[in-house]
Design brief:
Strand content: 5-15%
Number of strands: 12
Bound molecules: 1,3-dihydroxyacetonephosphate, iron/sulfur cluster
Oligomer: single chain
Shape: globular
Radius of gyration: 20 Å
């Protein structure tokens, strides 16, 4: 018997009262994914934010994602469960430092920026990409164009290799995806030789070289559903296991091993930022309409342009 108030019911009620939509990233804890109206990876969530008719967006993810929703929806109220939920990639690229460095060393370069960045960085960019569309968007630039790719050096290096380009890379990384251990992964592959290795392109090259399939969170989910294999070693944040297991309950998922020790309970490589959010904080944010995420109008307009370019380039081409 439940002892406290039923949070699920409370959230459903508040959602109606506020005419709110809950958008949740696949790295959120399972309960939050279950109360969400829409779960997805960064691109799918940006598209959902662009299309919503709700008055309030509760964004269960990290700060740059909610900020992106606000950039797309200036008249809507955007709230988050925890204002401190940040991202090591966004932190790695302060816009003023980037602007000074670019002006000094690469004044004419185009700037392609991963969506994991602040509004200030978006405003300095020619186009935004996510791990779902980066290959297509970078590939749309002329072969000789000078491009800076920021802030994820691992995704940038992966794209350079895949597309045969020489983009200049900003030196940022994801504290979660750089934790996987090549040595332990090779060992696990020997023990679990029937398992397919799936990896997110935010992982280091030493890990990606052992992957059978590399893709965004949504692409890895699709791969689990569609692959003929029954067992997978997954090198990404384990929040996605919830949706993978719902989509393919008969399949077995193993976490890729990390450097250092790991509790036997699993979920060894959770994103500490994503996991700041809890169901209670979701309820509080809907109840109090706080904390809100706002973007000054001039900055918002500058950041909107490369976002809209990304969303336009991500539309499926007419046959
Ligand atoms: P995607 O949602 O694009 O797969 O990115 C993963 C991630 O690390 C989000 O912060
Ligand atoms: Fe940022 Fe990495 Fe966490 Fe995603 S998983 S929010 S890239 S720190």
């Amino acid at each position: 018997m439940a002892l406290g108030p039923d949070l699920f019911e409370e959230i459903a009620q508040l959602k109606k009262e506020r005419n709110a939509v809950i958008l949740a990233h696949y790295y959120q804890e399972s309960d939050i994914q279950d109360v969400a109206d829409f779960t997805g990876d960064s691109l799918q969530l940006a598209q959902a934010a662009q299309g919503t008719t709700a008055d309030v967006i509760l964004f269960a993810g990290v700060h740059f994602m909610a900020e992106t929703a606000k950039i797309l929806n200036p008249s809507k109220t955007v709230v988050v469960p925890d204002l401190e939920a940040g991202c090591s990639l966004a932190d790695a690229c302060p816009p003023d430092q980037f602007a000074a460095w670019k002006a000094k060393f690469h004044p004419n370069a185009k700037v392609v920026t991963y969506i994991n960045c602040t509004a200030g960085m978006k405003a300095l960019s020619d186009v935004i990409v996510t791990s779902s569309n980066a290959e297509k968007i970078v590939g749309s630039f002329g072969p000789d164009e000078e491009i800076i790719f920021a802030p994820d050096r691992n995704l940038g290096r992966y794209l350079n290799e895949k597309l045969g380009r020489k983009m200049i890379l900003w030196d940022g990384s994801c504290i979660v995806h750089e934790q996987f251990s090549e040595r332990k992964l090779v060992h696990l592959k020997v023990l679990e030789s029937d398992a397919e290795v799936l990896a997110h392109p935010e992982c280091e090259e030493s890990v990606l070289r052992h992957a059978d399939y590399v893709g965004s969170t949504a692409a890895l989910l699709k791969r689990v559903k569609e692959s003929e294999r029954q067992r997978f070693i997954v090198a990404t944040e384990p929040g996605i296991f919830h949706e993978m297991q719902k989509a393919a309950p008969e399949k077995q998922l193993l976490e890729a091993p990390i450097h250092g020790s790991c509790p036997t309970t699993g979920a060894c490589n959770e994103c500490p930022h994503m996991k700041r959010n809890t169901l209670e904080k979701v309820r509080n944010a809907l109840r109090d309409l706080a904390p809100q995420v706002d973007v000054p109008e001039e900055l918002r307009v500058a950041a909107l342009k490369p976002m809209l370019r990304m969303l336009e380039l991500s539309k499926p081409r007419a046959a």
